[in-house]
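User: two proteins, same treatment. go.

Assistant:
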Amino acid sequence: MSARTLPERFLTPVDLADLFGVPVETVYQWRRKRTGPRGFRVGKHVRYDPEVVRRWVTEQTSEAA
């Protein structure tokens, strides 16, 4: 992820799916199971802070090492 820059705006579930190359349903499963990056609601929409996503990726890669 370090080679790829995240946008400065909040990310949508579709953005995350595109970023990680997974189906959008996988992003929603991560949310339901609380295994993915922490998101927040804006009305009926879910958004992700790019910095939280970056930290989550760092945690995942350090656990795998």
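Protein 2:
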Amino acid sequence: MCDYSLHAVTSRPAKVGESLVSTSFRGTSTRGFAAKDEPTVAVCLLPGTELAFEQDVRYNRNWLLTKSAGFRVAQFCVIKPKTPGQHHDALLFPDGTIVLVNLLSEGQHARVLQLPAVWLTKKSGAHARPAPDSAEQDDRVEIEPAQQTS
């Protein structure tokens, strides 16, 4: 998924194994991910996508201060998907901390480790298959504001 304010930016779905960089997109107030070789194209992630960063993830606390999440791995999630006009894209860290993608410090490099599986139900039973290339998915994580890191 790409955050609501990136809908006017060219975008595409993430691919397993590709290298991404956290960036701000021209003409928006939103940060997201772009491929190293396509800096103006937003790379959209499905909830459940796993990322591995080159260094501990850093995010902005305010204009001048940044904080370390203390982890190099995170899972992409979406918070409050039904609330319009706010940022929804976030990273969930192993300790349960959630940080909005919009707060990530720019220039951090990450690799897409794994895309989420999508469960299909057939008459013969349920089975998993890899997520489609589309960045749209109905199962989104609903996280309460008290669990967010500001």
